[in-house]
Amino acid sequence: xxxxxxxxxxxxxxxxxxxxxxxxxxxxxxxxxxxxxxxxxxxxxxxxxxxxxxxxxxxxxxxxxxxxxxxxxxxxxxxxxxxxxxxxxxxxxxxxxxxxxxxxxxxxxxxxxxxxxxxxxxxxxxxxxxxxxxxxxxxxxxxxxxxxxxxxxxxxxxxxx
Length: 161
Prior knowledge:
Layout: H1 3-22, E1 25-27, E2 38-41, E3 49-57, E4 62-63, E5 66-72, H2 73-79, E6 88-94, E7 103-105, E8 110-112, E9 115-119, E10 132-138, H3 145-156
Parallel strand pairs: 3-6
Antiparallel strand pairs: 1-2, 2-3, 4-5, 5-10, 6-9, 7-8
Helix pairs in contact: 1-3
């Protein structure tokens, strides 16, 4: 498996682990032609869902209290739509390079050397860039159980994120 595919698969493992920890399902569409790598689904209330685009990197993109991620304009445009029924977020997973160890295991624990952060782009303005736009993802937006539960509660209330 090439390094890009390894990084992609690792990022999906992290997202699936957080979803499972919060009690939600992660499902993958057969085709990603709308900047949706997966859907997080809950089985409470109105059965809320959150669509996500997953990105991963081993580069040092932290600057102060945020990550500065170069997002393809196609993804930016499809994630910024604010008239979708289902809210959408970008999830950026930080991890070692595909050739470095990422997983460690002992008798007591299984550790994934990664961290993940989320960002809603709903309602953002159109840009004139043609390739990439650098988005700022606050490190306060940790993609973890607590924040995912809060996001899912907002989605259940019908709020865009």
